Amino acid sequence: MYILNFKGRKDINILTPQGMINPFIFCKIVLMKLSFYILIISLLIASCNSKDDYIAEVYVNIDVDLNLPEYSDLQVDGNSIFIEGGVKGIIIYRMGGNYKVYDRNCSYEPSLACSVIDSVSSGVAYCGCCTSAFLLGMDGAAANAPALLPLKQYYWSLQGSQMHISN
């Protein structure tokens, strides 16, 4: 068995070689830095997840009789109407003998009071607040900036002339 005896020699230290920080202090510094980075990343993620950036979830259960005169525009493909319901109203769009049903709340900054689809022309819905446009025939996809997300869609079913809209 060998016994290392370095008494009197200050230039040799088996635990902490020359120029190296004490391993305990080194680990402590690394853990502090790691904790700091985790805290910063958590704060960034939490700040990006604001509930104001999403269209609110509201209960929708509406029946529409398409034979009534106020819905007669829906007898022609490419036409749309606005009805009450949803977050800021509902758009019913007829396309190819079928229908698409969307919320009128614009997907760009939906918490703003003016963030409403206010007109539809040739299958394109326009928001007068932010100048976004949405393609109603393509699941409400955003056609231009600043909106990136599509319009919120609702489920619908048809029995005879009665349309049922729900979520």
What's the layout of helices and strands?
Elements: H1 23-47, E1 61-65, E2 80-83, E3 90-95, E4 98-103, E5 117-121, E6 124-127, E7 133-135, E8 141-142, E9 155-159, E10 162-166
Antiparallel strand pairs: 1-10, 2-3, 3-4, 5-6, 6-7, 7-8, 9-10
Description:
Strand 3 (90-95) and strand 4 (98-103) form a beta hairpin. The chain has 167 residues and is an alpha+beta fold. The chain has a four-stranded antiparallel sheet with strand order 5-6-7-8, with no helix packed on it. A three-stranded antiparallel sheet has the order 1-10-9, with no helix packed on it. It has a three-stranded antiparallel sheet with strand order 2-3-4, with no helix packed on it. The model has no long low-confidence stretch (mean pLDDT 84). The protein contains one helix and ten strands; from the N terminus they run αββββββββββ. The chain folds into two domains: 17-49; 53-166, Rieske Iron-sulfur Protein, CATH 2.102.10. Helices cover 15% and strands 27% of the residues.
Notable traits:
alpha+beta, four-stranded antiparallel β-sheet, 167 residues, 1 helix
